[in-house]
């Protein structure tokens, strides 16, 4: 407890160093800016800016990436509420009630409540993170390769089955990501694997190229000539952002409940933020005395999902940093960013890189305060940003993608990789596969293989070891349960209620 | 792709996954599998490929119950893939221009340098929008190229030279 507080103070001293603070502010600002732009979610934003981290030291780099992340999440809410455009899937729920509020002239209040809910939830998430992380580290030190393998398996499985869309397709995409991760020179024997004879692939595929192909180019390919330009006629001024007393009262408990739901789900590896927001929304509607109001501009429907998303975001950093198991694709990207900087996430991270871990936590708070401070006066600017037409936006973004990927390794081959993954990603999207699990698989793949091989070597090739060691057996049981739940729900869907609309289909829309 | 039936999509997806999985299994097999105790470099790709094909099979087998009867005759999976691609109403102009933009960046980056590569990438991809005009796209390309050069060449010292021949 006291130790945590000392560490936190140390973290603040790291985060407030001018060099670090500058990059943190830059990340938050850029993240917010790009997040507001239509069609640019957190994944796209981080992918585009990932190459920038090559130019700076590890601590400011990770602070910047984290800043981009919650900045863009914040920016995304603005587009969702004012324009009914969810640029990041979790905001799809916010649209349901946020946009009707805008139409009713209360868009400003919805933004204000979002801001408060986000700040509150993020603060709770950070506190949970401060006290839970050291505990988790104690546990994590008992982990050998066997345990790491099985928890990774659990994370991958949860990420594949509990995100949007069909669980089978999620698993397929996770496997595809794992395969992409296996491309390149085998660490142990030096064999060139799956390189198609291209020497450039010997070092493996480039994370930035993969991400920008899948979340940048593929997205443009699917969106082009399909989005009609929406004229924005909303005017939001600072004064409009103050919710009325009645609205505050209505939003208060939903905000607390949303935070609780987000915190709970954040601690579970693999559960995406989208599902968290949907659950928070559904829960709120179930509790409400007037469920009919939901979908027509109920402020509870904005406060609760937004709070849950932000709490989840913060708590998600716990498994990412202390176990090296990212909760979703964005976390996987951040993890990739750390690995690029030569830092191996895992239980050692907190002790060996105290500056990164505690600096990051402290920067969350600073960043969230900054977001509130920035968003209140800049809201007018953001609203104008929303009007940038897509036809100017995507060619510009494309150039930044090309140059960004080139700069990571000074390789034009990587840029060609972007085009290939863009096309492939667009085909997958057309076939209704969700792309996020690919990144999860890609980042975890090499670690999973290395630990699996080590575990097999230690157990002399006995695969039962995963079920014999108690911690590992626990994770494997959880994996089994996950699969069982999927099987039961499939069985119920097809055999008991064939004609009824399926919740997963609704979610993927 | 609205014209495509959902079940058709599933079948194309399944076929794609099975084909990829088999290809990867084959590749993995050629890298030496080894034993579980001393795993060869090919074992993990082989296993992943096998799982991918399996999932592909499952997706194919569990597509909507409604047209199950029609699907049963089989042999259609591979066939359906070819047909499906012809049916897609993907935006070919957009696709061609955007992918062409990236490819032209690669080629011109190699043979011409940063300035022509940037210009071509933006110009070509901007033409992918149905409302785009030549003049507007050129203007956008010129402006973003200038900004790109300022930020990346002078600001961040990108290694790619502004111009180069061959």
From TrEMBL, chain B:
InterPro entries (UniProt xref): DUF1468
Q: Where are the transmembrane segments?
A: 12-31, 43-61, 95-126, 138-156
Q: One Pfam family from the UniProt entry?
A: TctB
Q: Which domain of life is it from?
A: Bacteria
| DUF1468 domain location | 13-161
Keywords (alphabetical) are: Membrane, Transmembrane, Transmembrane helix
Protein's name according to its UniProt entry: Tripartite tricarboxylate transporter TctB family protein
């Amino acid at each position: 407890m006291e130790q945590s507080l000392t560490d936190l103070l140390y973290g603040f001293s790291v985060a407030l160093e001018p060099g670090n603070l500058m990059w943190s502010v830059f990340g938050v600002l850029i993240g917010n800016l790009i997040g507001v732009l239509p069609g640019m979610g957190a994944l796209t934003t981080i992918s585009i800016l990932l190459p920038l981290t090559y130019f700076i030291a590890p601590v400011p780099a990770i602070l910047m990436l984290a800043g981009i992340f919650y900045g863009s999440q914040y920016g995304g809410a603005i587009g969702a509420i004012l324009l009914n455009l969810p640029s990041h899937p979790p905001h799809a729920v916010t649209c349901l009630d946020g946009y009707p509020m805008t139409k009713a002239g209360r868009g400003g209040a919805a933004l204000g409540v979002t801001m408060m809910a986000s700040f509150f939830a993020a603060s709770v998430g950070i506190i949970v993170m401060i006290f839970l992380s050291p505990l988790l580290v104690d546990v994590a030190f008992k982990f050998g390769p066997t345990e790491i393998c099985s928890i990774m398996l659990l994370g991958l499985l949860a990420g594949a089955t509990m995100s949007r869309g069909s669980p089978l397709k999620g698993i397929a995409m996770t496997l595809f990501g794992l395969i992409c991760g296996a491309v390149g020179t085998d660490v142990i024997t030096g064999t060139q694997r799956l390189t198609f004879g291209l020497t450039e692939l010997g070092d493996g595929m480039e994370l930035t190229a993969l991400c920008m192909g899948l979340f940048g180019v593929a997205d443009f390919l699917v969106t082009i000539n399909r989005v009609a330009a929406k004229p924005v006629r909303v005017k939001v001024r600072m004064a409009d952002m103050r919710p009325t007393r009645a609205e505050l009262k209505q939003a208060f408990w939903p905000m607390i409940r949303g935070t609780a739901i987000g915190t709970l789900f954040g601690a579970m590896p693999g559960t995406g933020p989208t599902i968290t927001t949907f659950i928070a929304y559904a829960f709120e509607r179930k509790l409400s005395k007037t469920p009919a109001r939901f979908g027509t501009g109920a402020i509870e429907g904005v406060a609760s999902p937004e709070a849950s998303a932000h709490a989840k975001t913060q708590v998600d950093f716990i498994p990412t940093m202390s176990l090296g198991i990212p909760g979703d694709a964005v976390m996987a990207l951040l993890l990739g960013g750390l690995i690029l900087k030569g830092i191996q996430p895992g239980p050692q991270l907190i002790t060996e890189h105290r500056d990164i871990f505690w600096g990051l936590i402290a920067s969350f708070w600073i960043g969230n305060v900054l977001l509130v401070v920035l968003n209140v006066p800049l809201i007018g600017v953001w609203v104008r940003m929303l009007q940038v037409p897509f036809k100017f936006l995507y060619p510009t973004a494309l150039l930044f993608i090309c140059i960004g990927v080139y700069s990571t390794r000074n390789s034009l081959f990587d840029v060609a990789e972007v085009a290939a993954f863009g096309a492939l990603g667009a085909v997958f999207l057309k076939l209704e596969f969700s792309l996020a699990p690919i990144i999860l698989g890609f980042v975890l793949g090499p670690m999973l293989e290395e630990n699996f091989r080590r575990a097999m070597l230690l157990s002399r090739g006995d695969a039962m070891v995963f079920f014999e060691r108690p911690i590992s057996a626990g994770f494997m049981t959880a994996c089994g349960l996950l699969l069982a739940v999927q099987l039961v729900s499939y069985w119920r869907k097809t055999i008991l209620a064939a004609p009824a609309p399926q919740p997963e289909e609704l979610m993927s829309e | 792709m609205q014209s495509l039936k959902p079940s058709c999509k599933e079948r194309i997806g399944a076929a794609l996954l099975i084909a990829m999985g088999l290809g990867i299994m084959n590749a993995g097999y050629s890298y030496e599998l080894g034993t579980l105790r001393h795993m060869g470099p090919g074992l993990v790709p082989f296993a992943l490929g096998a799982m991918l094909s399996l999932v592909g099979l499952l997706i194919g087998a569990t597509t909507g119950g409604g047209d199950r009867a029609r699907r049963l005759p089989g042999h259609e999976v591979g066939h359906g893939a070819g047909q499906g691609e012809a049916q897609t109403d993907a935006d070919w102009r957009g696709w061609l221009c955007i992918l062409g933009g990236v490819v032209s960046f690669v080629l011109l980056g190699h043979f011409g340098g940063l300035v022509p590569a940037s210009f071509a990438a933006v110009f070509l991809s901007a033409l992918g929008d149905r409302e785009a005009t030549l003049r507007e796209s050129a203007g956008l390309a010129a402006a973003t190229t200038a900004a790109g050069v300022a930020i990346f060449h002078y600001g961040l010292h990108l290694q790619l030279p502004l111009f180069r021949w061959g």
